[in-house]
Amino acid sequence: MCMALASVLLGWLNLDAESAGYVWGTALPRVLPTTLILAVVVPALAGVLGVAAAWLVAVHEFPGRRLLEALLIVPLAIPAYLLATVYIGWLDYAGPIQTLLRAWFGQGAALPPIRSTGGAAITLALALYPYVYLLARGAFATQGQRALEVGQSLGMSRWQGFWRVGLPLARPWIAGGLLLVMMETLADFGAVAAFNVDTLTVSIYQAWFALFSLPTALSLASVLVLVAAVVAAAERRTRRQRGYTAAGQQARRVHLHGAGAWGATVALGTLATVAALAPITQLLVWAAQHASDFDTRYWAFASHSLSLSAMAVGLLLAGALALAGLQNRAGRAGHLLARIAQSGYAVPGAVLAVALFTPLAGLSNAFNAATPADWAPILLHTSLATVLLAYATRFMTVASQPIEAGQLRITPALRDAARSLGLQGSRLWATVHLPLLRPAILGAALLVFIDVMKELPMTLMTRPYGWDTLAVRVFEMTAEGEWERAAVPGIGIVLLGLLPVAWLMRSSDPSGATDAA
Predict the structure, then answer these.
(1) Residues linked to residue 511 through DSSP beta bridges, in sequence order
(2) Nearest alpha-carbon partner for 487 in 505, 475, 474
(3) Could you give the CA distance from residue 259 to residue 113 in angstroms, rounded to a whole number?
(4) Domain annotation for the chain: domains and CATH numbers
């Protein structure tokens, strides 16, 4: 991560006067306001959707809850650029919905333009709210029955209990999900480009591919890193010296009845339909229309995608757990190292790939120049190890946020009690920490698996020759303007992304038993 950050920051040192003028005089004034609007609006919308859905499924029982609990995670498996393609196809002026409106109400009937900042914000919120939902769901489910009963004993209604007990105790988990949403929004390129919205990330790609200026692209990328670092530091500072443990048995779900029960079912069913079921149905229709494209190569694409995702999960979970242990033992130095390791998520994948690719290519050339000519060339910049290094640099935040939040449920008194029984070091971690962190680890594994499954630019630039994935195939189709044909590999990404969702739902039901109100 330090190597990548150094490459990004060195972009400022290599700027010439003309490029610096473009950065400060043209690019930033034009795109920074839109970027900041999306960085605020998308997490706000995703937070409302994710927190409300998590509170309903974790604390309440209503018809269809178990099915909806799983379906609400599904949008995470749909790449945002595919979701954008589906919504633009439906809601654009020439799309079926607006055409139908004009047929019913006359030629003057029209919806607000979908290719806008608002359209991009809503689409990104629908694609990214599962980050908040998944973390908040685990937080609400593990708050403990006693905490909620104390609120009820003080005369609080369910709504007051949510605002004054449930929400404050879940704050680190919700903040972690919002931080992931914000970073993903800042780094997104495919979706905002589809909506014709200029953001800082779009300017980075323009500087790279139109101006052919890598220093300009890297200097713009450093602004994203700075914004994300400031927000993350401010959030951690606000929760300093506060406790978020909730002792007691796990809270039992409250049965909803009548209009409340069916209202919850309809609301969450509508969200799942709009964000997942309807877009997947459209992708299936397009994929069926181009089923002849499917051949034996797709088994290799799927195998490569699964292999890379599984290896990345193992590597990143190990790294996240190591960082968590380091922060517990190394004080401020450990926290600083953790912040550095987690800072790559706000950098666009393509820029981060170049930041790693350039120094590794230089090392490869140096090694090859120092070895005999008949030796096989060393290619540090295009290997599976390089791909995994790029994933570790980009997605360490995704793996670390759930585990960091999960540690807040482990009280100092519990650790002291374990130490009094002779548990120290690795035995303490294996006996006390890991069992209590199991829900957080499962959530982190799910997020990493799906993010790697749909990741494109780093895989495209650093993979070994012949290691094409489903995401690379989507890129090849869309680069040729074959958006509907891209649904064939796109639906493959979605279906493979559903595998860990199904496994997670079968492996754990963190809310425990149900109970009548």
Answers:
(1) none
(2) 474
(3) 35
(4) 2-515 (1.10.3720.10)
